Every structure is written in structure tokens, then in C-alpha cells.
Hints:
The complex is a heterodimer. Chain A is mainly α. In chain A, 71% of the residues lie in helices and 0% in strands. In chain A, helix 3 runs antiparallel to helix 4 and helix 4 runs antiparallel to helix 5. Chain A is flat. Chain B has one domain. Chain B contains 21 helices and 2 strands. A two-stranded antiparallel sheet of chain B has the order 1-2. In chain B, helix 4 runs antiparallel to helix 12. The longest helix of chain B has 49 residues. The chains are: A mainly alpha, B mainly alpha. At the A-B interface, helix 1, helix 2, helix 3, helix 4 and helix 5 of A face helix 7, helix 8, helix 17, helix 18 and helix 19 of B.
Amino acid sequence: MRDRISALLFMSLGIFFLVGALRMPRVTEYGKYGAPGIVPAFFSIMVILLCFIMLVRRQKPTLDSRSVPDEIRRKENRRLILASAMFLAYVFLLGKINFIILTSVFLGATSMVFLRKKFVLIALTSVGTTLGIYYLFSRVFLLPLP
Amino acid sequence: MTTLKVFFQSMGSILTNPVFLFHLSWSTLLGIVVGILPGLTATLGVAILTTLTFGFPPDIAIPMLLCVYVGAIYGGSRTAIVLNIPGTPANAATTVDGFPLARSGMAGFALNVATIMSGIGSIIGAIFIVSLAPALGAVALKFGSWEFALLAIFGTIIAGSLTAPKDPLKGWIAGFLGLMIAMIGLDEIVSFPRYTFGNIQLYGGISLLPVLVGVYGIPEILTSLKRVTKAEVVLDFSTRGRKLSYLQTIKKNALNLVRSGLIGVFIGVIPGVGEDVAAWVAYDAAKRMSKEPEKFGQGSIEGLTAAETANNACVAGAIIPVLTLAVPGSAPAAVLLAAMWIHGIKAGPLLSIEHPEMIGYVAAAFTIATILMVLFGLIVTRLFLKILLVPTEILMPIIFVLCVVGTYVLNGRLFDVWIMLLFGLLGYFMRLNDFPAAPFVLGFILGPMADTNIRRALMLTNGNVSPFFTRPISLALIIAITLVVLSKYLPKRRGGRA
């Protein structure tokens, strides 16, 4: 089932790229073989074709997901969603809040949410690491930070 | 000047320059730490250091990146032995015998054997950089558009086959997806904006670094953070229980060492395949040839030797096509290729003309990286293993911040960070559904090369495709592609090995 979903998803992407390729100019100053859509069309046709084979072939059972107990899987999914949400929030706020404040709060909050102990150590590590990253990138290597 | 002469001159100039040695030392240590930390790959290590070495001249930046690469592939063996979790995918085969050795009270011996064998593997690799790279470079000068176009497709297909041996179809889909997504941006022949939708940020295409960090880094971070169960750590480094001295161990494994080294180098040369496949193939070959195959999986020194020799020899193998064909042999080598471009060194067939000293210089830097790796490996890495006691919940958010910052500083725009997250999501989805990341990344790198050369070949012959079949190297590549595809689907011989 999972293979079928992947095949359909990637096939849709292939169709999207193929339609885009077909809408590109067919003739250029270098003739019809210099057309920018030739190669994208070829690659997208290959993706569609390979996904089609995956879609119609006999499906193999996926064993790995069945070996994890439901309770652990639920717990893992919760942690995954939480981590993704925190990462998204951090990137969204980058550039809007001062880098040192945002990163210290992000590191501290993420570690505390997942570890739920050693709060003082986490707070110290978060501030220390942020200052370390800031100093290394912006002072030692003179690279711009968000 | 011959490559060998440049090699010795470069060795001398690097070893007598304290500033170079200082930078190479900390880069090697950084690489070892990256390798030790499960979830951080050599690719990510090289990518992060690429951003840090922007301001460095190429003659120091390239050796530093080599040091991180060599160090990380080696560092992963530490975790594989004491934690039973490969520090990098390249060390997966090391866990099979490394951890049983550690549990039987031989952790110290196993760590030292892995260090020595990794060093020997790297030296075998360095010999091939000096000897094979110039020869391959000479052949590469005969390549035309037809050969480069087919090489890109061959690389993607073989990477797909070898990184997804149970289901090569998924490897090929991943490879062609990479080739397809590489088409985003202005095309190189008529500068037509493809799939940009009027977004000016997409005109330059998608940068390699956000894709690499996204596809390799983000899935690792998410997987580590979501994991509920914790691993067993063996931090008793005694060398008791060993039956042979290190020299006797080397002598006893001499044939295994040479065989695994050669396997490592030649798998490294194959585009996009990388160190993990090399280690497994060498491990399998060692088991087949062994007089004591029953010990494999129970703590066999032969198994440990094969895996560690091959993965480090593979690093050198992966660098050879980078230098001569601009085609990376592995994912970290792909970042190295990108870093060389950033530093103004155009790797590929013309490298031997534009920078004739480069192959010898890279071989020298690689050898020094190996020496530093062995020294640090034998002296200080046990101390660094204490880093494994830092909880993942503290470490992974820090790694995420490093990924974000590393991606941002590349062009100084948040757009790249969002691209990294998008590819992180794609990478996680691919991992969850057993699609390998390596062919995807290789396809993404080789996409522009395939695009330009397919169209150029067609323009030169006004659409006539016969040169693809009449030029010898081109024909050989077509036969190789056909064989790779057919070999996966032809029925197996009855009674033969699976």
C-alpha cells in the first residue's frame, strides 16, 4: 500500500514536470534540438514510467512497520510532530527575532520538551551553544547570520 | 611534473607549515566527532565545514574538507563498536562484529584494530589516487557530449541498483527524480527559466548544499528525536582478551586487507555508490573467503578488518571520479565537488590542464589526513566517546541549528533554509518508504551535465542518435546500463547463490 502511495505521489510530480516541459519553447536560435524542454520531458517520462511499473507490480508486504508495537509508534509519531512543529516555528521566526535570543530559546525549549529533566544544564548548554555558534560564524569566520 | 613528484613536494610543504597542520588537525578531530555522533553523516560534516571554509584559500580549504571526510568515515566505527549503532551509514557493517567484540571485553582491541585497518585502507586508496586518477583523467579527455550524457545516466542507474539492492526500481525512481528536479532554474544553453514560476530566487536553480543537508541531515535529526528506546553503550576500553598482537593481526589479515582495500577503491570509483556499499561488499567477500566463516557476526576480526578497510579505501575511490570526471563517487564526495567549484577549482577532464598539480596535492592531503586520523584515533578518540553520554535530546536541536546556519550562510538568504526543510521532508518520506537518498542526490548533481550534453550531442548531429552507438566509450556505457538493468530482473539460475 505504501509503495502505491509513493508511486502515485511521484508520478503526479512527474506529470507536473512533463506538462511544464511541453509548455516550453519548441524551437530556439540553436534549432529544435536546443529546446529547453527536451531533457526535462525525457526525465519526467522516465519517472512516470518507473512509477507506473511500481504501481502495477505485485505489492510486497512491508514488515518493518508491523514489528513496532502500537503504543511506541503512537509515542514516536507524537514526538515527530512536535519536533517538526518546533523546527518550523524556529525557521519561521528567523530574521524576525534576534538570532541569539531565538536560538537560545529554541534550543532550551526543544531539549526541555523532549528530555523533561536536567533543566539547569539544558538552559546553560542552550545559551553557551548559541553564543559559541554566533561567535564562530560571525566573529571568527565573518559569515552573516540571520 | 609527474603526479608522484607533486605528491612528495606537497607532503613536504604541508607537513612543514604549522598553520596548515593546525587547521588539518582540528578538521580531522571535527570529522571524527561528526562520525562518532549517530545521526551526523560525513556528508553533513563536509557540508558544514564547506560553509566555514568560504574565506580560506583553496590550498587549505580542500585538504580541510578531506580531513573531515576521512575523519568522519573513520569516527563512525567508534560508535559502531561501543554502541552497536553506526556513526555513519558507512560503518553499518562494522557493527556486526565490532559490537560483539566490545561486549566480550575486547572493546579497546576492536577500536585499535579498526583504527589501524582504516589507516591501511586509506593508504591503499591514496596509492590509487596517485596512480589511477591521472590515467582516468587521460581517458576522460576523450569524452565528448555523448559520453558525458550517458555517464550521467549510467551513474544514476548504477547508484540506484547498488543502494537499493532489494528493490532497485526505487533506487532508479529516486535517481530520475533527482535528475528531474535538477532541471529547475535557467537552462545552460538558451537561458530559458524552467519551473521558476516567476520566482527570481529559483532562476539560479536550487543550490546543492540545502538539498544535501535537507535529504541527509533532517531525516536523521527527526529519526533520532522521535526514537523512544535508548541504546546500550559499552565504554570499557580494555584490551584484555586479545590473542594476537596488532602486527600479528595485520599479518594474519594481509590478504583480507588488500582485497578489501581494492574492493573499497573500485566501489568508490562507481558514481554515487559510496562507503556503506563498499563495506558490505568487502564484508561479504571476506566471509566467503574465510576459513572461519562461522565467527562472522560473533566478533570476527576478519569481518571488522574487511568493513573498516573497505570504507576508508572507498573515500579515496570516490574522490578519483570527482577529480577526473566531475562525477562524485559518494555523497560526501559530491559536497567536496561543490566545494571545489566554490573555491574556483573546476574539477573534471580539464583539471589536469588547468591545475596539473591538483591530483598530487589532493593525494598528499589525503595521506596527511590519514596519518592524523590514525594518530588521533589511537590517542584521543576514547575521550571523545564520552560525547555519547550527552542526551540526543540536547544534541539534535544543536545539530538542527547548525544545519540551518550552514545553509543560510551559503548565500545569505532564508529561501535556502526553506528549501532545506522542503528537501528534508522529501528525504524523510523517502526514508520511510525505503527510497535511497544517494541516487537522488547523484541525479540532482548530474542533472545539468546530462541536460547540456544530451542537447549538445543532438545539436551537433542534427538529431542523429547514431554516435551514441558508434563511439566506443559511448557504446560501452550503453551496454553497461543495459546489463545493470537486466541483471536485476533476469531470473536467477536455479541452485545458484541468491
